[in-house]
Amino acid sequence: MLQQLTSPGARSGSCLHPSSASLALPTRRSTAVQACRQAHDGEAPPPLPPPAAQQPPLLQRLRAAALAGALSATLALAPIAPASLDAWAQPAALSEDTPVLDLARVVPSARLEGLQQQLRDLESETGWRVRMLTRYGNDGPTDEEIRAGWKTDERTVVILVDPSSPNIMNFKFGREVRGVLRPQFFTELQGRFGNMFAVREQGESAAVMNMVDTLTGCLSRGGCTVVPGLSADHYYFTLAVSVAGGVIAGAASKLEPSGFVQRRWVWVALFAPLWGSLFVNFGLGPVVTRTPDLLPLVGNIVAFCIAAAAVGYSPKISKAVGLTTDEDAA
């Protein structure tokens, strides 16, 4: 009886009856039975499929999502990056055929080639050489590389523009340049166009281009004593100085004759070095030397005359400014 119970298992080797296999592995019944039959026939059983992979934890899912998002953003921005790098790329070498090396991107791109040609024409027509380098701080070529690359000589003006500096402009020039443009000219040029107020009002590009036009214009006509052009702030200063000279002249005309002074106009003549210096040197001189326009000149003359007449012939104004004489007070 025991032999009859165990004989089916002996004939089939290690294979179980379908009913017992279904009890042991209910989810893989057909696969196990097929494997047992192939083993009984002498064939190698096929490998069983691996169990289902376990789900990753929440932290791994979030990390994978973040990496996927970063990769997507990188791929989306990839076409823009090369164009941006190419736009900012600048040649680092200096050559005589390139008068302007704009590393700081100050010169407008639409005017860069025109500025290059303008400086080339200036050199071919007059012999004066103007070179300009824009950079941030000490980045870019050194002084030795500038001299070697541009082959600077006594007729060369090198303009250094640094947008990170309080005054963005600096100049280096040869000895022959001093004969037509004095060092005071470059000081005024730097103060007018390179100070932070002018740059803030006009913008870096406009300030630099106006400076280059002024410099090349003076070199083209053989030199300048002062920087041409009269700014609004400069004119208001000359107007105020003219009024101050008129006040002093009018006050001198109020003084009573005494001692060797027998006429009031003598007092005006004696104080002429004071009011004349203010009115002529600082009121009219800057206007005449910087602009051919007659309107600022006439305005300063009229302001001087009105101030002198108001103080000299108006008792109320004279009393208000404390210029009354003892006779008027009596």
Automatic annotation (TrEMBL):
Biased composition regions of type Polar residues, renumbered to the chain: 17-29
Transmembrane segments: 265-288, 294-313
Region (Disordered): 1-29
Taxonomic lineage from the root: Eukaryota, Viridiplantae, Chlorophyta, core chlorophytes, Trebouxiophyceae
Keyword Disulfide bond: no
Protein name: TPM domain-containing protein
Keywords: Membrane, Transmembrane, Transmembrane helix
